[in-house]
Design goal:
The chain is α+β, with helices and mostly antiparallel strands. It contains 4 helices and 10 strands; from the N terminus they run αβββββαββαβββα. A 3-stranded antiparallel β-sheet has the order 3-4-5. A hairpin with a 2-residue loop joins strand 1 and strand 2.
Length: about 160
Protein backbone atom coordinates (compact mmCIF):
# COMPACT_ATOMS: atom_id res chain seq x y z
CA UNK A 1 0.00 0.00 0.00
CA UNK A 2 1.32 3.42 -0.94
CA UNK A 3 0.80 6.26 1.51
CA UNK A 4 0.16 9.93 0.88
CA UNK A 5 3.31 10.70 2.86
CA UNK A 6 5.46 8.52 0.57
CA UNK A 7 3.99 10.16 -2.51
CA UNK A 8 4.53 13.69 -1.20
CA UNK A 9 8.13 12.85 -0.25
CA UNK A 10 8.83 11.46 -3.73
CA UNK A 11 6.75 13.59 -6.11
CA UNK A 12 5.52 17.09 -6.76
CA UNK A 13 2.12 17.49 -8.42
CA UNK A 14 1.45 20.13 -11.06
CA UNK A 15 -1.30 20.41 -13.69
CA UNK A 16 -2.27 16.74 -13.69
CA UNK A 17 1.25 15.31 -13.63
CA UNK A 18 3.69 13.99 -11.08
CA UNK A 19 7.31 15.18 -11.13
CA UNK A 20 10.24 13.53 -9.38
CA UNK A 21 11.17 15.38 -6.22
CA UNK A 22 14.29 13.27 -5.70
CA UNK A 23 17.08 11.98 -7.93
CA UNK A 24 17.81 8.28 -8.00
CA UNK A 25 19.13 5.74 -10.48
CA UNK A 26 17.66 6.57 -13.90
CA UNK A 27 15.59 9.47 -12.51
CA UNK A 28 16.45 13.16 -12.63
CA UNK A 29 14.95 15.48 -10.04
CA UNK A 30 12.25 17.66 -11.61
CA UNK A 31 11.53 15.33 -14.54
CA UNK A 32 8.04 14.20 -15.43
CA UNK A 33 7.30 10.86 -13.76
CA UNK A 34 5.88 8.07 -15.82
CA UNK A 35 5.33 6.88 -19.34
CA UNK A 36 2.41 7.00 -21.69
CA UNK A 37 0.72 3.66 -22.37
CA UNK A 38 -1.25 3.85 -25.60
CA UNK A 39 -3.99 1.34 -26.31
CA UNK A 40 -6.13 1.08 -29.40
CA UNK A 41 -9.79 0.42 -30.10
CA UNK A 42 -12.16 1.64 -27.40
CA UNK A 43 -9.54 1.37 -24.65
CA UNK A 44 -8.26 4.51 -22.97
CA UNK A 45 -4.70 5.76 -22.93
CA UNK A 46 -3.18 6.23 -19.46
CA UNK A 47 -0.02 7.52 -17.83
CA UNK A 48 1.82 4.90 -15.74
CA UNK A 49 4.43 5.61 -13.06
CA UNK A 50 6.93 3.00 -11.92
CA UNK A 51 7.10 3.37 -8.14
CA UNK A 52 8.07 0.96 -5.36
CA UNK A 53 8.82 -1.82 -7.85
CA UNK A 54 5.49 -1.70 -9.67
CA UNK A 55 3.73 0.21 -12.47
CA UNK A 56 0.79 2.30 -11.21
CA UNK A 57 -1.78 4.31 -13.10
CA UNK A 58 -0.81 7.93 -12.52
CA UNK A 59 -4.40 9.04 -11.82
CA UNK A 60 -4.61 6.61 -8.90
CA UNK A 61 -1.36 7.94 -7.43
CA UNK A 62 -2.57 11.52 -7.93
CA UNK A 63 -5.80 10.73 -6.09
CA UNK A 64 -3.87 9.22 -3.16
CA UNK A 65 -1.44 12.16 -3.22
CA UNK A 66 -4.36 14.58 -2.73
CA UNK A 67 -6.81 12.64 -0.57
CA UNK A 68 -4.65 10.20 1.38
CA UNK A 69 -6.37 6.96 0.41
CA UNK A 70 -6.20 4.59 -2.51
CA UNK A 71 -9.49 4.58 -4.41
CA UNK A 72 -11.32 1.48 -5.56
CA UNK A 73 -12.30 3.08 -8.87
CA UNK A 74 -11.79 6.53 -10.41
CA UNK A 75 -13.57 8.20 -13.32
CA UNK A 76 -12.07 10.84 -15.61
CA UNK A 77 -14.96 13.31 -15.79
CA UNK A 78 -14.16 14.45 -19.34
CA UNK A 79 -13.52 10.86 -20.50
CA UNK A 80 -9.87 11.63 -21.32
CA UNK A 81 -7.65 9.11 -19.54
CA UNK A 82 -4.66 11.42 -20.06
CA UNK A 83 -6.24 14.36 -18.22
CA UNK A 84 -5.16 13.60 -14.66
CA UNK A 85 -5.88 17.01 -13.17
CA UNK A 86 -7.35 16.41 -9.75
CA UNK A 87 -10.42 18.47 -10.75
CA UNK A 88 -11.08 15.92 -13.52
CA UNK A 89 -11.02 12.87 -11.22
CA UNK A 90 -13.89 11.53 -9.11
CA UNK A 91 -14.71 8.37 -7.21
CA UNK A 92 -17.04 6.08 -9.06
CA UNK A 93 -18.69 2.68 -9.03
CA UNK A 94 -18.21 0.25 -11.94
CA UNK A 95 -21.69 1.12 -13.27
CA UNK A 96 -21.10 4.86 -13.05
CA UNK A 97 -17.74 4.47 -14.76
CA UNK A 98 -19.44 2.61 -17.62
CA UNK A 99 -21.99 5.43 -17.97
CA UNK A 100 -19.17 7.83 -18.75
CA UNK A 101 -17.49 5.51 -21.28
CA UNK A 102 -16.64 7.00 -24.65
CA UNK A 103 -18.65 6.20 -27.76
CA UNK A 104 -17.14 3.29 -29.67
CA UNK A 105 -15.40 4.45 -32.85
CA UNK A 106 -17.30 1.96 -35.04
CA UNK A 107 -20.73 3.35 -34.07
CA UNK A 108 -22.45 4.41 -37.29
CA UNK A 109 -24.66 7.01 -35.61
CA UNK A 110 -21.81 8.46 -33.56
CA UNK A 111 -24.04 8.31 -30.47
CA UNK A 112 -24.00 5.60 -27.79
CA UNK A 113 -27.27 3.67 -27.76
CA UNK A 114 -28.60 4.98 -31.10
CA UNK A 115 -28.58 2.80 -34.19
CA UNK A 116 -30.38 2.53 -37.51
CA UNK A 117 -32.53 -0.54 -38.05
CA UNK A 118 -32.29 -1.24 -41.79
CA UNK A 119 -35.28 -3.60 -41.72
CA UNK A 120 -37.74 -1.07 -40.23
CA UNK A 121 -35.87 1.92 -41.68
CA UNK A 122 -36.13 3.65 -38.30
CA UNK A 123 -33.73 4.78 -35.61
CA UNK A 124 -33.69 2.89 -32.30
CA UNK A 125 -32.58 4.24 -28.94
CA UNK A 126 -31.72 2.18 -25.86
CA UNK A 127 -29.39 2.34 -22.88
CA UNK A 128 -28.23 0.27 -19.96
CA UNK A 129 -28.47 1.55 -16.40
CA UNK A 130 -27.53 -0.55 -13.38
CA UNK A 131 -27.50 -3.75 -15.45
CA UNK A 132 -30.98 -3.16 -16.90
CA UNK A 133 -31.68 -2.54 -20.58
CA UNK A 134 -33.97 0.44 -21.09
CA UNK A 135 -35.60 0.46 -24.50
CA UNK A 136 -36.62 3.98 -25.52
CA UNK A 137 -38.33 3.13 -28.79
CA UNK A 138 -37.98 3.64 -32.52
CA UNK A 139 -37.93 7.03 -34.21
CA UNK A 140 -38.34 8.34 -37.73
CA UNK A 141 -35.30 10.59 -37.48
CA UNK A 142 -31.86 10.23 -35.98
CA UNK A 143 -32.34 13.59 -34.24
CA UNK A 144 -35.42 12.31 -32.40
CA UNK A 145 -33.55 9.19 -31.25
CA UNK A 146 -30.63 11.33 -30.07
CA UNK A 147 -32.96 13.66 -28.18
CA UNK A 148 -34.58 10.65 -26.47
CA UNK A 149 -31.26 9.04 -25.52
CA UNK A 150 -29.84 12.29 -24.13
CA UNK A 151 -32.86 12.87 -21.91
CA UNK A 152 -32.95 9.27 -20.70
CA UNK A 153 -29.18 9.21 -20.11
CA UNK A 154 -29.36 12.40 -18.05
CA UNK A 155 -32.19 10.97 -15.95
CA UNK A 156 -30.69 7.49 -15.50
CA UNK A 157 -26.99 8.37 -15.23
CA UNK A 158 -27.11 11.79 -13.57
CA UNK A 159 -23.73 13.51 -13.31
CA UNK A 160 -22.06 10.48 -14.94
CA UNK A 161 -24.04 10.80 -18.17
CA UNK A 162 -21.91 11.19 -21.27
CA UNK A 163 -23.04 12.21 -24.70
Amino acid sequence: MITQEELKETFDYKDGHLYWKIAKQGVTKGNLAGTLNRKYGNKTDYWFVFFKGKNHKAHRLIWTYHYGFEPTMIDHIDGDGLNNRIENLRLTSPSQNAFNRKTKPNTKSGIKGVYFNAKSKKWTAKLIAYKKLIYLGTFLTQEDAIHAIHGARKQAHGEFASY
